[in-house]
Please model this.
Amino acid sequence: MKTIGKNKPFAVVSWAFAVAVAIIIFKFSCDTGEESAEVSAGLLSLIIDFIGNFISHNLLRKIAHFCEFAALGFFTAGGIRFTFDKGRIYAPLIISVLYAVSDEIHQYFVPERACRIFDVFVDSSGALTGILVFTLLIFIIEKIINKKNLH
Model:
């Protein structure tokens, strides 16, 4: 049975993307409440122009949190998998949850921002989703590889 295990190039790429996503999250968290609201309002305006008015400003912000941390979870899971040949979800989840907590604490010190436990839950849910998507993707790829090796 052939599996995708330790793989230095994939590990480097995964960690690079995980760090890039963490930096993006940090930069967004540095925005004041007013700056953050302007970015969200601009994006919401684009969505409304393109698709129609189906989403609130607050829901858009929660979806953004979820997606940022889904990406972080996905790439952290890749980093762990390709560095240590471990496919468990707890290590990337712990890393992502700790980053979510630190992100909310950081926002507490930014003008017009707040530290919200609910946002930690949204962020952690996004991270878990990203980790599960990565795990499912690896499972499917390994099944395909193993099927080809049997023939």
